[in-house]
TrEMBL record:
Keywords: ATP-binding, Ligase, Magnesium, Metal-binding, Nucleotide-binding. This is tetrahydrofolate synthase. Coiled coil: none annotated. It is an enzyme of class 6 (ligase). Residues 279-394 form the Mur ligase C-terminal domain. One of its GO terms (cellular component) is cytoplasm. SUPFAM superfamilies: MurD-like peptide ligases, catalytic domain, MurD-like peptide ligases, peptide-binding domain. It comes from Deinococcus deserti (strain DSM 17065 / CIP 109153 / LMG 22923 / VCD115). Its EC number is 6.3.2.17. Transmembrane segments: none annotated. Gene3D superfamilies: Mur ligase, C-terminal domain, Mur-like, catalytic domain. Belongs to the folylpolyglutamate synthase family.
Length: 418
């Protein structure tokens, strides 16, 4: 019960919001004995695809025989999902014991939720004997808590408009913030478009761009066949279960990063094939039908999902949608609307940031729209349609509540802000 109280305390910190800056997290890591110095760090930033790129890279490093920690956010159903070691979730009690160590130091310096979680990740990875930690950047880059670490390599997947109220309202401003995770003279990999290269190159990193270096062939619902030509003159060929052109691109970025970290082409291929990334273009079999889950919460992410559906030969299908009220909801809806046959609007029950389903209805003019107040109601409405394939998309908090309903498992009942 004492350890559970620590977790309740941590989740209560979400309400205090985000506080960009590195002073507090540096102080917290110092108080904990600099656990981040026990392993190599790779930072993975960007607007979309950070998680699947990080998961692919971690899998490739494991295939090389490395003991790898994977730090991602947010979690879907269990807090411990944020800290994966050797491809396995750490037991809850291990994470909670480390959190108990962190709490007094975090309280002393008034650290934010994500600063605490970042330091906690470093501590559990050090205690687990991790050799490489693949750390997904939370927000932006320059002032994100993960940037207090000292990466041997950095990845910037892409740059698009998102979190404009914090990062700026142009892709150039956002790119400059994301470029903060790069280090002068150190290797870096990006899939960003050429228009933001000047912002990335300004940091002086040894930057490889994969622009026009990736070829892919769809394997249908089995994933993608990928060929990437590296600037070093090496060509890597592998399969990934990640779906769509964006899945192939993210796997290619991970492969380029892995190669620069000394992973062999054979291990890159093995690791790519065993990548798992729940809730992102994930297909679940439910009864006699299938449900595709994806956390596309900005226009670029939604457009990528629609392109993948077109590649897979999918015409129109029922859509369950819900997202945070502070997102570009009209842009996301405009991207998804062409593939929707019917629309079920809902909200993540545990997320106070969720948009009112009734406020989303005008974004889908001309569609049959069903309003629901919970994921449970949304899934019931979806089942009543009896479609062979449906799409559930929007907030990752929504995906985190829908997924256990479809799988018949249990999720944590805690309010979600971050």
């Amino acid at each position: 019960m004492r350890l559970e109280a620590d977790l309740e305390w941590l989740f209560s910190r979400q309400r205090f919001g985000m506080h960009p800056g590195l002073t507090r997290v540096h102080s917290l890591l110092t108080r904990l004995g600099e656990p981040q110095r026990a392993f190599r760090v790779v930072l993975v930033g960007g607007t979309n695809g950070k998680g699947s790129t990080a998961a692919s890279l971690a899998s490739m490093l494991r295939a090389q025989g490395r003991r790898v920690g994977l730090f991602t956010s947010p979690h879907l159903t269990r807090f411990a999902e944020r800290f994966v070691v050797g491809g396995e979730l750490l037991p809850d009690d291990v994470v909670l014991r480390s959190l108990h160590q962190v709490r007094p130091h975090a309280e002393a310096i008034e650290a934010s939720f994500f600063e605490i979680v970042t330091a906690l990740g470093c501590l559990v990875f050090a205690e687990a004997g991790v050799q490489d930690a693949v750390m997904e950047v939370g927000l932006g880059g320059r002032l994100d808590a993960t940037n207090a670490l000292d990466p041997v390599l950095s990845v910037i997947t892409n740059v698009a408009l998102d979190h404009t109220e914090v990062l700026g309202n142009t892709v150039e401003l956002i790119a400059a913030e994301k470029a903060g995770i790069l280090r002068p003279g150190r290797p870096a990999v990006t899939g960003a478009a050429p228009d933001v290269w000047p912002m990335l190159e300004a940091e002086g990193a040894d930057l490889w761009s994969l622009e026009n270096r990736v070829r892919r062939q769809s394997l249908g619902w089995d994933g993608e066949q990928v060929v990437v030509r590296l600037p070093a003159g090496v060509e890597l060929t592998f399969r990934t279960p990640l779906l769509g052109a964006h899945g192939a691109q993210n796997a290619a970025l991970a492969a380029a990063a892995a190669y620069r970290l000394g992973v062999s082409p054979e291990a890159i291929s093995r690791g790519a094939q065993t990548t798992q990334w729940p809730g992102r273009m994930e297909v679940l079999t439910v009864g006699e039908g299938r449900v595709l889950l994806d956390g596309a919460h900005n226009p670029a992410g939604a457009e990528a999902v629609v392109r993948a559906l077109r590649d897979l030969g999918v015409g129109k299908l029922p859509l369950v949608f819900g997202a945070a009220a502070d997102k570009d909801l009209s842009g996301v809806a405009a991207a998804l609307e062409p593939v929707a046959s019917q629309v079920v609007l809902t909200r993540a029950r545990l997320s106070p940031r969720s948009a009112d389903p009734a406020a989303l209805a005008p974004l889908f003019p001309g569609h049959q729209v069903t309003l629901t107040e919970s994921p449970e109601q949304a899934i019931a409405a979806l089942r009543a349609l009896g479609a062979p394939l449906a799409l559930v998309c929007g907030s990752l908090y929504l995906i985190g509540e829908v997924r256990p309903l479809l799988l018949g498992t249990v999720s944590e009942e805690r309010e979600r802000w971050q």
